[in-house]
């Protein structure tokens, strides 16, 4: 267990700066999730921590030690790849034990460690199989097992669940969270899926074009996004940004105003914004209603239960005023 | 017509020209040589008609000391050239797969031997091997004194090695290209995972590259073996099978018997034997290596 400290780290490919001077503290034992749109530099940052990518400028510390120029295997990190990266010709047991074998660990001790990891991940019956005889979820577990046996100070995950189907993804989210509780290790997890970020993280780092938009606990980011980018990125469906010259009377001139779909109520009879229903999505427990309003442009509203509205009919949408998010010059205006 | 061919007339029509050529230039002549191998057919027509001689050609072949020497030479050549050539091919492929400067240029240059006719390659190496002042002997003289030289092509101990080296050089780019394709198919993150697992460069080769090249290796082993067993041109141009028959290969011996001595019947028997031997070796390699790899 150790904390990770990233100090003015810069990454350049030739003349292109993909990560401009970035500072970040990953507390010991935390589950930190790096999120952001594709190409924002999440993998690059993670790979710099792993040592698979050189750092152009700045320093990285793990547990107080400067490891900026240390070989990947000496950093005390283990990484789980999106593609699993299992050695195709080795059995599950050999895959998990490979790092220990290279480190010169004795056979019996190694077998013990492999078995221990296999037990945690319920891989016991599969130890003799080859990776191609496993399902995607099982392969993912082997990849995690390979990380566990090395007892790393820091676990690094690069979109580990993106190749799995939705049901398995949901299950693995829970398993990974349980694993984190059980091991208590520092974990750094890259994803572009904000649901994974919200459900698993102690700390979310929102990246955009290589710089940090905001760092904080999931609910903090949800309740008080620092920038419109974070506001739009965290939460599903996306936050509505009101259009029109002055959509909200008490807001400052030129402010950007956002309201989450779950914080708008709909009524047949009367409300703030009359709007025409464009499309209705029935999700079972809840309904998403897409509307067009003369005053504030297009809106998405999430209502619990089923709502039988026909496209083309007019409804009245009313925001909960205390839930409005106001931004000026790209920053949140408090209160 | 069998049901699998039903409604496939278009495909069959497209296959036809290639199949017809194959039959005409390979299958028919081979069947003819099976027939000839039981006769005393000569290359030039003779007044006496050709006779059926039964297994005489085969009996003679198995008792022929020169035939066995040719087999020995062919096996020796194959055993030497296959590992040597595959090793060069793999080393060059790995160098060209790494992020070296001017990689594109080196890739282009390295396939040049493939573009040269084999006779030109032999001419180049004949210059390199020349006595007493060819480039290789000039280097040798730096170590062994100004008067010393090695008669690479003329010595019965060194002639086969000389042929091995030049043959490997002449055709290695083909294997190299296939290795290069194989190397590019190895997923990059396996190397990264191995690096995190603490593997050294050698261990990354041993535990990632080499096992991932397994199928490529099997394929190359088979085709390089077949290529080696067919050795002819280099010998024919450079040593004429000598000195003392030390570089006479099966195909060269067959050629001598059929076209120099005009004994087509006997040469046909050798070619039938050669065909069976090569097929058997290729099939054995395939079966043996396949079984080992499958679980
Ligand atoms: N080897 C490279 N050379 C040049 N540019 C690169 C290289 N690798 C990555 N980049 C650039 O760096 C930026 C960040 O890439 P990175 O892979 O970190 O994105 P990401 O956030 O992980 O995206 P994704 O969600 O798609 O995986 C991208 O704009 C990418 O084009
Ligand atoms: Mg990525």
From TrEMBL, chain A:
Family membership:
Belongs to the ABC transporter superfamily.
One Pfam family named in its UniProt record: ABC_tran
Q: Which UniProt keywords apply?
A: ATP-binding, Nucleotide-binding, Sugar transport, Transport
Family annotation (CDD domains): ABC_MalK_N (cd03301)
This protein's species is Donghicola tyrosinivorans
Q: Name one GO cellular component term.
A: ATP-binding cassette (ABC) transporter complex, substrate-binding subunit-containing
- All copies of the ABC transporter domain together span 4-234
Q: What Gene Ontology terms describe what this protein does at the molecular function level? A: ABC-type maltose transporter activity; ATP binding; ATP hydrolysis activity
Protein's name according to its UniProt entry: Multiple sugar transport system ATP-binding protein/multiple sugar transport system ATP-binding protein
Automatic annotation (TrEMBL), chain B:
Q: Does the keyword rRNA processing apply?
A: no
**Record's family?**
Belongs to the binding-protein-dependent transport system permease family.
The answer to whether keyword Glycoprotein applies is: no
List keywords of the entry alphabetically.
Cell membrane, Membrane, Sugar transport, Transmembrane, Transmembrane helix, Transport
Q: Where in or outside the cell? A: Cell membrane
Source superkingdom: Bacteria
Q: What is this protein called?
A: Multiple sugar transport system permease protein
Q: Which GO terms describe its cellular component?
A: plasma membrane
Q: InterPro entries, per this entry?
A: ABC_transporter_permease, MetI-like, MetI-like_sf
Q: How does it sit in the membrane?
A: Multi-pass membrane protein
């Amino acid at each position: 267990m150790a904390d990770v400290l990233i100090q003015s780290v810069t990454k350049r490919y030739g003349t292109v700066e993909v990560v401009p001077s970035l500072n970040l503290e990953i507390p010991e034992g935390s589950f930190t999730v790096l999120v952001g749109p594709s190409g924002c530099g999440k993998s690059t940052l993670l790979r710099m921590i792993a040592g698979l990518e050189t750092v152009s400028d700045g320093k990285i510390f793990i547990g107080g030690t400067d490891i900026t120029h240390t070989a990947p295997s000496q950093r005390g990190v283990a990484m789980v790849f999106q593609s699993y990266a299992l050695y195709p010709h080795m059995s599950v047991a050999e895959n998990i034990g490979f790092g220990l074998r290279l480190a010169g660990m004795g056979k019996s001790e190694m077998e013990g460690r492999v078995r221990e990891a296999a037990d945690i991940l319920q891989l016991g019956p599969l130890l003799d199989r080859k990776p191609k005889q496993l399902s995607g979820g099982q392969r993912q577990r082997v990849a995690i097992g390979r990380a566990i046996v090395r007892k790393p100070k820091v676990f690094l995950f690069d979109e580990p669940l993106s190749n799995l189907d939705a049901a398995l993804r949901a299950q693995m989210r829970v398993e990974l969270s349980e694993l984190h509780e059980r091991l208590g290790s520092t974990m750094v997890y890259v994803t572009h899926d904000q649901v994974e970020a919200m459900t698993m993280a102690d700390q979310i780092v929102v990246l955009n074009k290589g710089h940090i938009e905001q760092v904080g606990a999931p609910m903090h980011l949800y309740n008080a996004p620092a920038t419109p980018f974070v506001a739009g990125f965290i939460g599903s469906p996306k936050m509505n940004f009101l259009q029109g010259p002055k959509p909200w009377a008490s807001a400052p001139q030129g402010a950007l105003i956002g309201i989450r779909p779950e914080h708008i109520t709909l009524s047949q009879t009367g409300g703030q914004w009359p709007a025409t229903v464009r499309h209705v999505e029935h999700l079972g427990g809840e309904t998403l209603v897409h509307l067009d309003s003369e005053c504030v442009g297009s809106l998405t509203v999430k209502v619990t239960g089923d709502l039988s509205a026909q496209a083309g009919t007019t409804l009245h949408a009313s925001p909960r005023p205390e839930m409005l998010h106001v931004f000026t010059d790209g920053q949140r205006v408090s209160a | 017509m069998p049901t699998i061919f039903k409604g496939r007339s278009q495909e069959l029509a497209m296959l036809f020209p290639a199949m017809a050529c194959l039959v005409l230039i390979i299958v028919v002549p081979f069947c003819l040589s099976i027939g000839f191998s039981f006769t005393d057919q000569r290359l030039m027509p003779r007044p006496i008609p050709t006779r059926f001689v039964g297994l005489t050609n085969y009996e003679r072949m198995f008792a022929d000391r020169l035939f066995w020497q040719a087999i020995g030479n062919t096996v020796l050549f194959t055993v030497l050239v296959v590992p040597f050539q595959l090793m060069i091919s793999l080393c060059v492929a790995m160098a060209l797969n790494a992020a070296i400067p001017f990689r594109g240029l080196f890739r282009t240059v390295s396939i040049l031997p493939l573009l040269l006719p084999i006779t030109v390659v032999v001419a180049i190496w004949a210059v390199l091997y020349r006595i007493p002042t060819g480039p290789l002997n000039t280097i040798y003289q730096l170590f062994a004194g100004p008067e010393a030289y090695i008669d690479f092509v003329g010595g019965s101990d060194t002639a086969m090695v000389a042929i091995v080296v030049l043959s490997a050089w002449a055709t290695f780019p083909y294997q190299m290209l296939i290795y290069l394709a194989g190397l590019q198919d190895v997923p990059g993150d396996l190397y990264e995972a191995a690096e995190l697992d603490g593997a050294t460069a050698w261990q990354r080769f041993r535990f990632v590259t080499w096992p991932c090249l397994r199928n490529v290796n099997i394929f190359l082993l088979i085709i390089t073996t077949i290529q080696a067993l067919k050795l002819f041109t280099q010998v024919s141009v450079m040593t004429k099978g000598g000195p003392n028959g030390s570089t006479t290969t099966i195909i060269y011996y067959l050629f001598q018997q059929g076209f120099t001595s005009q004994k087509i019947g006997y040469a046909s028997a050798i070619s039938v034997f050669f065909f069976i031997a090569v097929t058997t070796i290729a099939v054995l390699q395939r079966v043996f290596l396949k079984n080992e790899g499958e679980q």
